[in-house]
Amino acid sequence: MLDDLRSRIDEVDQALLELLDQRLALVREVGEVKREHGLPIYAPDREASMLAKRRAEAEQRGLSPDLIEDILRRCMRESYQQEVGAGSKCLRPDLGKVVVVGGKGRLGSRFVQYFEASGYQVAALDKDDWQDADALLAGAGLVVLSVPIDQTLAVIEALPPLAEQCTLVDLTSTKSAPLAAMLAKHPGPVLGLHPMFGPDVSSFAKEVVVHCQGRGDNDWLIAQMGLWGVKAVAVDPAEHDKAMGFIQALRHFTSFTFGMHLKEEGADLEQLLAMSSPIYRLELAMVGRLFAQSPELYADIILSNKGHLDLIKRFQARLGQVIALLEEGDRASFVAKFGDVAQYFGPLAKSFLRESQLLLAQSKDNRRS
């Protein structure tokens, strides 16, 4: 009896595989149509409408709408990856060559991939090619700098003169200094970009790119990234650098310090993982993932702005304030402070709770030990 039921489940699974194969084939066709008509990979209104309909249909069938949404979101994530291969419409066919300085690096190569898929002529200029920089940059209509933070200003200064109509762009995670250096170096269009993601993302769809206007008409480039599914956020360079203190420097500092503390305390990571609920396992994973990446990158991010250290020192002072409350056993003050911060977060607190519950469900699904 059990074997028969399992065999029937296997048959249903095979049917699901066939349907998924058909769905992805249709997605590839959709990608071609979007490319031809200049439509973005990610259409939020279409996605929201489709999910709402499928959830309603699931409820009518007595199925969990959350289950259906989980399945469809995973399918859509795969769909976005499929559409990357189809590329997007080239908005500036008259642009000339796109040169990505650092285009053989991990992030630079992703931008090479996207520009090539969109029909642009692309060249990569890496550190070993610098003797050929003049030739590689000749006729460039767009130059994108994807180099380490600590080398960005030197690379800008070392650039040969570019054609006046050429657009000069950087991808650095600090914006004020690189933007000022590019404006001083190049008389043509200048734009500062900060992709808020790493090179390991499967697709640019739904990813954020912060942009800081320098000079000239750069709307076409923002629109091109929009076709890739990017969410572009405009901000003043000084405001960008201030925000990155919270988004990047302080978070990386606390993860680094927590990881160092675990190491110095001799904590048994396997034991911690075995006893952790999904939320604590996920928090530990967010700390641990830092140490699977480049230490130079995180050192440069934290040290790229003196304001970051000032922010970290203020954080240290507030840690001291909380420790003082605990040393005094002042439970009432702790609860009151907690309430103040909860009021500051307002409705976002419950929104974050719901969002984290989805992440925890996925984390639990993937747990093997």
TrEMBL record:
One of its GO terms (molecular function) is NAD+ binding. It is found in: Cytoplasm. InterPro entries: 6-PGluconate_DH-like_C_sf (IPR008927), Chor_mut/prephenate_DH_T (IPR008244), Chorismate_II_sf (IPR036263), CM_dom_sf (IPR036979), CM_II_prokaryot (IPR002701), CM_T (IPR011277), NAD(P)-bd_dom_sf (IPR036291), PDH_C (IPR046825). It comes from the Bacteria. GO terms for cellular component: cytoplasm. Residues 96-356 form the Prephenate/arogenate dehydrogenase domain. Gene3D superfamilies: 6-phosphogluconate dehydrogenase C-terminal like domain, Chorismate mutase, NAD(P)-binding Rossmann-like Domain. Residues 1-87 form the Chorismate mutase domain. One of its GO terms (biological process) is chorismate metabolic process. Its main location: cytoplasm. This is T-protein.
